[in-house]
Amino acid sequence: MARSRRVGGALRRAASLAGVVPFVLYVAVFLGIPLATVVAGAFRDGAGRFTLGNVRASLTSPQYTDAFGQSLLLAAWTSVVGAVFGVWLAYAVVTAREGGVLRRVVSTASGVLAYFGGVPLAFAFIAALGQTGLTTRWLQSAGVDLYAAGFRIDSITGIGLAYVYFQIPLMVILVTPALEGLRPQWREAAQNLGASAWGYWRHVGIPVLAPAVLGATLLLFGNAFAAYATALALVNGTIPLVPSQIQAALGGNVLVGQENVGLALGLDMVVVIAALMVGYALLQRRATRWLT
Q: Region 155-181: what's the mean pLDDT?
């Protein structure tokens, strides 16, 4: 009897593991093999010999350091703007009447717009805010000339506006569960103890939400840092960003002997994203102490 139970338990464990096999194979083929290729190629020259020159060039060459600076700056301000407006919008949704129009519309729109990017988003912004775009012409008729004031859709500001378009709804999706985790009993207890509304948020609400909000902001940062198609369609590589530099390097637009610099740049991006994911995991672990 004991042996049959052990055999049955082993079969159940094997069956549960068998269900994971397709996912493991999928991750290995579409993530593991490309990652191994990038890491191995970053330390090889054109002849296949080991070298640190590619990584050194990716970290010291002015064109690449400038690209990293631009990408980090763009990711920083778009993630902060997306986080601020995303938290505000998510709070409005959470405090709205359950089942009401606002909650349904914002939740549905966030689920769609958070993943609306690439060339279609770039085309939409060009059609709206390009030099002859509909919004640009409407503002000109109202006496506001964006381009005379120095704005251009094919600038770092134009790219940032396009990124914010999907950063805000993504923040709504990420932070809504944390806001819903704030228990009404905590506010009631704070009020019974004489705390004001600001006192409640200062000593209870903000400390509880901070790890979840900061973790979501890190995800927004990584999302903007790695975005590629929207920026390429808007500026066609005229503004140095790391993804566009990788595309140029892999396309052969490099010096002789630096054929694998694009892979080194990819490795640099992997390191940045990995650091963000570690920070996100640590913050999420802290957030779950209160919100579970």
A: 93
Q: How far apart are CA 290 and CA 292, in angstroms?
A: 6
Q: Tokens in use for 155? A: 């600038």
pLDDT band at residue 193, thresholds of 50, 70 and 90?
confident
Alpha carbons within 13 angstroms on the beta-carbon side of residue 196 total: 3
Q: CB-hemisphere CA count at 13 Å for 124?
A: 13
Distances (CA, A) of 32 to 88, 182, 219, 279, 291: 38, 38, 21, 22, 33
Q: Nearest Cα to 278, choosing from 222, 225, 209?
A: 222
Please report which confidence band the pLDDT of residue 235 belongs to, taking 50, 70 and 90 as the band edges. Answer: confident
Per-residue confidence at 257, pLDDT binned at 50, 70, 90? low
Domain positions in the chain: 16-119+169-290
The CATH number of the structural domain formed by 16-119+169-290 is 1.10.3720.10
